[in-house]
Design a protein that fits this description.
- With 231 residues, the chain is of the alpha+beta class.
- The chain folds into 2 domains: 3-108, no CATH class; 123-210, no CATH class.
- 49% of the residues lie in helices and 11% in strands.
- The chain is built from 10 helices and 7 strands.
- It starts with a helix and ends with a strand.
Length: 231
């Protein structure tokens, strides 16, 4: 659900991390623990590897020390701000076959975009690239795809083109995204300003969401919990 998924969706990014969305059942956690042991992985930060923390929205961080995946970081989450429950994510998953023949499951592109709406600087350029890649690679989009681009695109030129070509779709979601009001003037500078305001608002929402979670991590540190341990 992270950088590796972005690469597979065509928004090139070098990543040595693997981000995984996990259904936090006891069975799945034990299966993951077994896989992590095979990777000779260690937990490298708080919180501890426990279902309780996953269900609160924390990420659990590991690093592999297996020679074939040396120092690869693995981040696991079960709940993400603004993103649906795992069962819904799973129902919309996109299967992808690797060159080796192995099949993996990616978050759907709309779900991946929602998961990227964080306070981190690096996520917003990636959202832009993901939509640009999807826009370029879909010559005959469905109405739903067009509306998805209109809701999520962060590229003024693309928004202008969409509003010009798909007027009814743009008008149907105008009330849901205020930045579209600037599109009809075809002023890219004005659109960029609105996109920046939109981004600042969402980043602040994410910052507030993480405040109590970060406070809990600080409490764990003060309580003397180890920041690193074997799986």
């Amino acid at each position: 659900m992270g950088g590796q998924a972005c690469i597979l969706y065509g928004a090139a990014e070098f990543s040595r991390d693997t981000d995984i969305a996990l259904h936090a059942s006891n069975e799945n956690i034990e299966l993951l623990r077994e896989a992590l042991r095979h990777l000779q992985a260690r937990r490298i930060a708080l919180p501890p590897f426990d279902r309780t923390f996953l269900e609160k929205g924390h990420a659990i961080h590991f690093r592999s020390y297996h020679p074939d995946a040396f120092r690869i970081r693995i981040d696991v989450m079960s709940i993400m701000r603004g993103v649906d429950h795992f069962e819904d994510l799973w129902s919309r998953r996109i299967p992808f076959v690797l060159p080796t023949g192995e099949k993996i499951h990616l978050l759907s592109l709309p779900d991946l975009i929602r998961s990227k709406k964080t306070q981190r600087d690096k996520d917003w350029p990636m959202i832009r690239r993901l939509i640009e890649a999807d826009y370029i690679n879909n010559e005959n989009p469905t109405n739903e795809r067009v509306k998805f681009w209109l809701r999520e695109s962060r590229t003024p030129r693309i928004l202008i083109e969409l509003a010009r070509e798909y007027k009814s779709e743009a008008e149907s979601i105008l009330s849901a995204r205020s930045v579209l009001e600037s599109v009809y003037g075809e002023d890219e500078t004005a659109i960029e300003e609105q996109l920046e305001k939109e981004q600042k608002l969402v980043r602040e929402i994410d910052r507030q969401y993480w405040k109590p979670l970060l406070s809990e991590l600080e409490d764990l540190r003060r309580a003397g919990y180890d920041t690193e341990e074997e799986v």
